[in-house]
Amino acid sequence: MRTLKIAVGTISKDKIKFLSEVIENVGLKAKIIPCQVQSGVSDQPITETETKEGSINRANRALDIRGNADFGLGIEVGYHLDKSGRYEIFCCASIVDKKNYVGTCESSRFPLPDYHHNILKEGKFLGHHVQSYKKSKKDKVTMYVREFLKSRKHLISEATRNVLLLYLNRQDYKLS
């Protein structure tokens, strides 16, 4: 099996770590090439469309920087209002290659607790407040939700795994 070269549109250590874990779990050999790029969308995307656009932009820009990579991969975490007007958090991951292939997968969506929903509703940056969520509470569920929303690991891992599998399972793609 050959080693893939993946240009990733992020320098986030957490996102790179989560991607590395996915690659290992799937059984791939890959060299991850982090690229500092702009998403071309707001710092806190609050629609499905904006989040998807950000992930595609990141994948394209990473591949532009590292043209010798097999493909570019973009990861964008965003928010979206559900049908009842409540914010959900999710991740969108996209792959772009030199043959103009574009593939995108989203993670599942997690409905935000009132605390987080209200921060977004007020137009504030959620990342500045996730550690404050029920700060004095130490029960396991509250601590799990706090960490889940801080790291976003499950969402990022799910979206990146799915887009990698989608891309690599295409009939015309060869790993050997």
Task: Please give the structural blueprint.
Elements: E1 4-8, H1 13-26, E2 30-34, H2 48-65, E3 71-81, E4 87-97, E5 102-106, E6 110-111, H3 114-121, H4 140-151, H5 153-168
Parallel strand pairs: 1-2, 1-3
Antiparallel strand pairs: 3-4, 4-5, 4-6
Q: Quick gist of this model?
A:
With 176 residues, this protein is of the alpha/beta class. It contains 5 helices and 6 strands, in the order βαβαββββααα.
The CATH class name reads: Alpha Beta
* Helix/strand structural class: alpha/beta
Q: Termini separation (Å)?
A: 5 Å
Q: Could you list the spans in which at least 5 consecutive residues all have pLDDT below 50?
A: none
The coarse overall form would be globular
Mean pLDDT: 92
Oligomeric organization of the protein chains: single chain
Radius of gyration: 17 Å
Percentage of helical residues? 25-40%
Looking at the structure, the CATH topology is Maf protein
Number of domains: 1
Describe the protein in words.
The structure is a single chain. The protein has 176 residues and is α/β, with parallel strands linked by helices. It has helices spanning 13-26, 48-65, 114-121, 140-151, 153-168; strands spanning 4-8, 30-34, 71-81, 87-97, 102-106, 110-111. The chain has a single domain (4-111, 152-168), classed as Alpha-Beta Complex (Maf protein), CATH 3.90.950. It is 39% helix and 22% strand. Strands 1, 2, 3, 4, 5 and 6 form a 6-stranded mixed β-sheet that branches. Strand 4 (87-97) and strand 5 form a beta hairpin. Helix 1 (13-26) crosses helix 5.
